[in-house]
C-alpha cells in the first residue's frame, strides 16, 4: 500500500486504510519524498498503530541525508517497529538534487554504491566506521582534526536491515541486484520483463552469490482503481 508524498496535507483516511491493511495481512506500506513531505516522519507516525505490516520508504533520497544519518534513522525505525522496517533508497534526479538540496549530481551509480556500503557498516556495528571513497569520507579529512571513527551508540535490533533500491536505468537496476536486497521499479511494465530480468541477472552475477536471486525482492507498484464501471476505471 503506497502513500507516496503529499502537498496540502496528509491524505484523508490514511490511518483507517493502514489499520485495515494491517488487519487484512498486507505485506507492507510505503511512503515517499520529493521536495515537500518527507518519507520517514509519516511512516513512523502511521506505523505506530500497526502490528504486522512492514514499513518501507519508497524512496529516501540519497542527497537528503548523509549515509550515517540514514543509517541512524533506519536503526531507530527498526527498533520502534520491532524489526519491520525496509530502507528504500534512490538517487533521485538532478532537478531535485541540484535545485532543492543544492548539491551536485555526480556519478549516481558510484555514489549509491558508497552510500549503501556506509549504511551497512553503521548498521552492522562491527567496528568504528571508517570510509574513504570518491564521494564520502569518514572521518572528515582536515577540519579541526578532532574527528575520529565512531561506532553507533545504538545497538541495532537487526544487524542487517533490508535495503531496496529505486532504479530504472539498466545499470542502476543491475546495481540493485548486486548490492541490495530488493528493487523498487517505478515504470515497470510486463512487456519489459525480459529486459529487466537481463539487468537483474547481470547484477546477481556481479554479486557472486548463487542464491541471491531467490532471496531478492521486487516491490513493483500496481495501480488499483476501485469502481463499478471497468471502462471508466481504465480511462483513469
Descriptive overview:
By secondary structure, the chain is of the alpha/beta class. It contains nine helices and ten strands. Strands 1, 2, 3, 4, 5, 8, 9 and 10 form an eight-stranded parallel β-sheet that branches. It has a two-stranded antiparallel ribbon with strand order 6-7. Strand 4 (60-61), helix 3 (67-81) and strand 5 form a beta-alpha-beta unit. Helix 5 packs parallel to helix 6 and helix 6 packs across helix 7. The longest helix is centred in the middle third of the chain and has 17 residues, at 108-124. The protein starts with a strand and ends with a helix.
Quote the beta fraction. 5-15%
Estimated helix fraction: 25-40%
Radius of gyration: 19 Å
The secondary structure category is: alpha/beta
Describe the global form.
Answer: globular
N→C terminal distance: 19 Å
Helices and strands, in order, run as EHEHEEHEHHEEEHEHHEH
Q: The biggest beta sheet, please?
A: 8 strands, parallel
Average pLDDT: 95
How many beta-strand elements? 10
Number of helices: 9
Instruction: Return residue spans where pLDDT drops below 50 for at least 5 consecutive residues.
Output: none
Secondary-structure map with pairings?
Elements: E1 2-4, H1 14-24, E2 28-31, H2 40-47, E3 54-57, E4 60-61, H3 67-81, E5 85-90, H4 94-99, H5 108-124, E6 131-132, E7 137-138, E8 163-166, H6 170-179, E9 182-184, H7 193-207, H8 212-215, E10 217-218, H9 230-235
Helix pairs in contact: 3-5, 5-6, 6-7
Amino acid at each position: 500500500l503506497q502513500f507516496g508524498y503529499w502537498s496540502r496535507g496528509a491524505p484523508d483516511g490514511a490511518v483507517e486504510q493502514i489499520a485495515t491493511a494491517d488487519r487484512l495481512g498486507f505485506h507492507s506500506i510505503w511512503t515517499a519524498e520529493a521536495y515537500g513531505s518527507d518519507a520517514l516522519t509519516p511512516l513512523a507516525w502511521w506505523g505506530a498503530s500497526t502490528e504486522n505490516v512492514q514499513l518501507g520508504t519508497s524512496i529516501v533520497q540519497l542527497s537528503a541525508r548523509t549515509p550515517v544519518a540514514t543509517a541512524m534513522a533506519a536503526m531507530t525505525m527498526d527498533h520502534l517497529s520491532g524489526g519491520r522496517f525496509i530502507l528504500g533508497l534512490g538517487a533521485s534526479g538532478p532537478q531535485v538534487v541540484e535545485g532543492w538540496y543544492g548539491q551536485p549530481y555526480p556519478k549516481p551509480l558510484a555514489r549509491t554504491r558508497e552510500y549503501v556500503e556506509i549504511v551497512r557498516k553503521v548498521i552492522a556495528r562491527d567496528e568504528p566506521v571508517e570510509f574513504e571513497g570518491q564521494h564520502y569520507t569518514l572521518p572528515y579529512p582536515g577540519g579541526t582534526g578532532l574527528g575520529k571513527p565512531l561506532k553507533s551508540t545504538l545497538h541495532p535490533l537487526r544487524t542487517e536491515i533490508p535495503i531496496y533500491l529505486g532504479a530504472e536505468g539498466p545499470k542502476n537496476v543491475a546495481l540493485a541486484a548486486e548490492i541490495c536486497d530488493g528493487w523498487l521499479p517505478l515504470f515497470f511494465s510486463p512487456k519489459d520483463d525480459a529486459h529487466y530480468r537481463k539487468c537483474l541477472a547481470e547484477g546477481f552475477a556481479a554479486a557472486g552469490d548463487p542464491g541471491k536471486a531467490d532471496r531478492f525482492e521486487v516491490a513493483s507498484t500496481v495501480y488499483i482503481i476501485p469502481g463499478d464501471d471497468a471502462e471508466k476505471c481504465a480511462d483513469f
